[in-house]
Design the sequence.
């Protein structure tokens, strides 16, 4: 008696998928991490989740202005996620999941990983500039790693597409 094609089997397949989480920002290394995660998801039958954390507005003198600024930032984040979504589908063959949050990027990342049991692996890009690996990587290495329940894959931000394809 096979359950192939049934709703139960489809649900189990979805919940058993390896989910690769990528933290979205406008950095060069994020694109490298995303490409790597997409290739790994495709070769392992997994899928991608994208997290974008909007920093709280600093302008608090006028609530109306602050709310407009917050809404504009959210619209920009949604546009970025939609444009990345097309790349994720092209590279991995599946639509990504989206997580939009507001607050401190590091704290929201740790909270999401604690709250979302479907996430299997965190994929981060190491900074290509000489100023260290990047704020999230630095945080995880110094304080946050003990709070994680998933492995972290650190992708060198200098990897090119050919190198990513070769190792995935």
Sequence:
């Amino acid at each position: 008696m096979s359950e192939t094609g049934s709703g139960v089997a489809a649900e189990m397949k979805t919940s058993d998928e390896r989910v690769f989480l990528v933290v979205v920002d406008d950095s060069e290394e994020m694109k490298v991490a995303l490409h790597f995660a997409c290739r790994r998801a495709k070769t392992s039958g997994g899928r991608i989740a994208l997290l974008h954390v909007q920093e709280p507005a600093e302008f608090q003198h006028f609530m109306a202005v602050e709310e407009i600024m917050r809404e504009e930032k959210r619209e920009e984040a949604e546009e970025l996620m939609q444009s990345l979504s097309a790349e994720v589908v092209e590279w991995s063959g599946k639509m990504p999941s989206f997580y939009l949050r507001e607050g401190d990027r590091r704290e929201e990342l740790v909270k999401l990983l604690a709250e979302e049991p479907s996430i299997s692996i965190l994929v981060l890009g190491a900074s290509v500039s000489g100023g260290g690996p990047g704020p999230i990587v630095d945080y995880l290495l110094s304080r946050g790693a003990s709070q994680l329940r998933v492995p972290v894959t650190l992708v060198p931000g200098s990897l090119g597409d050919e190198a990513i394809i070769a190792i995935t």
Summary: The first strand starts at residue 19 and ends at 23. The chain has a mean pLDDT of 84.
